[in-house]
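#dry-run=false #mode=assembly
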Amino acid sequence: MKTKLILGLLTIALLFPTTSRGQSLPSGQSIADKTYARNEGISMSRKLTMELKDKRGKVRIRETTSLRKYIGDEKRLAIFYITPKSIMGTAFLTYDYPDASIDDDQWLYMPALRKTRRISAANRGDYFLGTDLTYEDIKLETRISRDDYNYETIDKETIDGQETYVLEGIPKNDKIAKELGYSKVKLWVDANMWMLRKAESWDVAGNHLKTTVISDFKKVQDIWTYHKIEVKNHKTNHETIFRISDVDYKTVLNDDVFTKETLVNGL
Amino acid sequence: MKNQQTKATKFFNKVTAHYKAILALSIVVMIAVSLFIPTMTKDTSYDAFLPKDDPILVFRNQTKETFGLKDPMVIAIVNEQGIFNKQTLQLVHELSERLKTIPGIDPDEITSLSTENNIVGTEEGLEVDPFFEIDELTDVKALEVKTAIDNFELYQGSLVSDDHTTTLVVAEMLDSYDKKQHEVYKSLMALLDEYKSHDEQFYLAGEGAVSGYLIRYIDEDAMKTNPFAAVVISIILIFAYRRLRGVVLPNIMVLASVGIALGAMAAFGVDFFVITNGLPVVLIAIAVADGIHILGEYYETAAKHPKFSQKELVVETMIHMWRPITITSITTVAGFLAIAASSYMPPMAYFGLFGALGVFVALVYAVFMIPAAMMFVKPQLSRAYKRDQKIDRFGKLMVFIGKVVVKQPKTIIIIAIVIIGFGINGASKLVINEDRIKNFQADEPIVKADALINSKTDGTSYLDILIETPEVEDIFEPENLQKMEALQTYVETLAHVKGSISIVDFLKKMNQSLNENNPEYYTIPNNRELIAQYFLLYSASGDPTDFDNYVDYDYRLANIRLRMDTSEYAYEKPVVDAVNIYLAEHFNNDTIKATTTGKVTVDAYWINRLGFNHFLGAGLALLVVLIFSALSFKSLWAGILTIIPVSISVLFIYTVMGILDIWLAIGTSMFAAIAIGIGVDFAVHTVDRLKFLLNEQGLPIKQAYSEFYKSAGRALLFNFLALALGFSVLMTSSVPPLSQFGFLVAVAVSVSFIGSLTLLPAIILLIKPKFLNITN
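#status=ok
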């Protein structure tokens, strides 16, 4: 009984400062919902250059054309590698189903083998094609998950002159934490565009894992679009920079583009 | 000569006049320099045996840096019932996780069954997954892990022993814990201790562990041998003079010599190496000698001149003694400097340099501090030197030896010639060898762990081969990969090479997995693009840093790591040679280059120099000693005579090493130069005293010999006992190379002593060299 009382008091004491400001700060969940409600266009094509840097500063640069389309709530993403020469023509395709209980489908076409290989349903926390972003990061882009975390909005900060809400998220349970590879995240969400600007994450053991910065926001065909993502892995000192250009939301992409056949034939 | 004597008298008159200031200064300097000792850092790594800018070492460090290879701590988990069960695998996981939290361990460089990924082909693709997930681990799942390992050649022997009773958890240390390996070792042992009650046994070895263990081990050893040496020396001093000052003064010299030598080492930022542990004991034994001779002379003078004031006694003593002790100290310094000059290996070079400093300090203290300190006390007689000139039993022993020499000079010379014959034969059969694990006694836990891991798995000695290609992604060239594969096949045929790992092994495994796990496809794909695409496919489910240890980030450099089950030079050297010959034939053209590196290569390189260094050092020491004594006695003959006993002592040791199967290794290789530098003292004293008696006093030869054995002979006997017993203290060291070193020097010194007091007078008796002006 006594412990309960103490715990209760503690909770109140802990909540007090946030509740007092709570009136001015929106709940984390509502912010998450807003990041989903944003207009992202139906189809999009862009040039995506992946710059990967190891801890010794050696760099791999891979240029790709990346296409994306929403078919209903289902998100399809295709990445066609242009350079380096050795992987030219290699293409990656993913179908990302809205129903979380259904595993996403992923394939990689390997021109040297003339075959498409299925990539087994990866853990959401697995690294995406040698980058420091996880499959989950790629899937969410500038959104923040609606289902995985218990959020607390802790502050307001300015990044690049723009107001952001600062959220702290703790995975709802250990299973989710393990899947994602995070025990805690701290997120900075733009208060006007409702896009993620910055994220810090901690691994399951509580070590500072990554810092992600999304920047270079420009309106393209009236849609707010980021042009750069930088991720630094503090444990491995590996770094990833995504540079984005030639964004186009207008060209309608046919559903056929997102098939295994197109992977084989290329764009 | 007369002039010199007056100069000396003036000098020691001054010294005794300012005795208070001199003593105060002596003590202040000694304490001030000794205060640096606590700042000394220990370096027990084998890399310490090469100068930091040696190209071989620089290259090795670059390779280590490129591929993130560090000195590992290797934990073996042994379950005689087999490790593929839930409980043991759970333990592997738990240990791997807990290791990440140990200070000094790189949390990202832990390799075990729970951290590594399995590569499996699926119907349509490739899966890279941990061998097991801890929450899903059951005994059935554990058996699946067994199957996975059976299908993953790469991990057989490197991660799991072929008999499935042993699995390894390899943890690498952060560079920041260099020289603090003992702390990490201690933490790991404490961690393993918590699992004592389990059915599994745990063993800890590997390069990092050996370094860590050694740091603690030599510490404990020093705590034991140094005080022991001081006690032994004090006992000898008590026997020699039976007086308190006879014990205290030489001990102050010893403190100064050791304190200043080690203090200077620390002040100059020189690390304390394994062999440095022998330095204090060596200096204790040597430094005390000057004190013995001075006090011997003092008591003798006191007995002869009962009316002398203390000042007269001290000055008289020093006038007689400064020359021989200067000569002997300088020859000893020469011995140490010969080591410094001939040694490419820093630990030995520093041993020589600071050993020389210690001996020099002892000389300075003998000339300044001892006379100054003596001025504080009243004249004193020693019971060992009675006024009636009656000699004690030590003196009697020496007189007896003298009689034998005078009667049987030819027999003595024949015995010497026989010893020389055996010695030359022994020298030609010297075995140069070294094994780091032999730094420990055979029953130490680290030795057992090392033996177990080496017998059960591929071993803990690494030989790395760096492959270099000219352009980015050239490693993907099938021709290059095939060359690497052929190289691996070849090296695995060499004795004691138990396995090798490179990117080729992973690639073959990927190829097999992507072809329905068909073993026929455990090959290198014959298409550069396909190989590049394999790695991209792998990255779809593996980690970006998975191949860090095997290939550099732009696929231009690769590393092949060979594992050997021994760290013995005799086995490592042939492997390095064979690999180098192979590389010269098959690699090293415009398209691909390969270089051996890694611990095994570095060791083979510097240990190979030990033999040359040894003979160079011994030769240099002999030469310097010869020149110096020839100059100081103003006679080449005198120079030659003084080096005869030490030369024989060294040859005698070669025979002993052959019979006892002692290697010429790090510790033992230094014995010759030191034995020469120290051992020559007896010959110097002998020649000096005989010259004085024969040439200056003009005594007939028989009387001169009798005088010599009675007085100088006795002091030499105690000098010898101090040295021989002092070095014998090193024999009690638990570090075998040090104890062997102590043994060899003790024997060599004994032979020098015997030779100087038998052979040398015998030769003089027969050939009657001119400089002695012998009259019958």
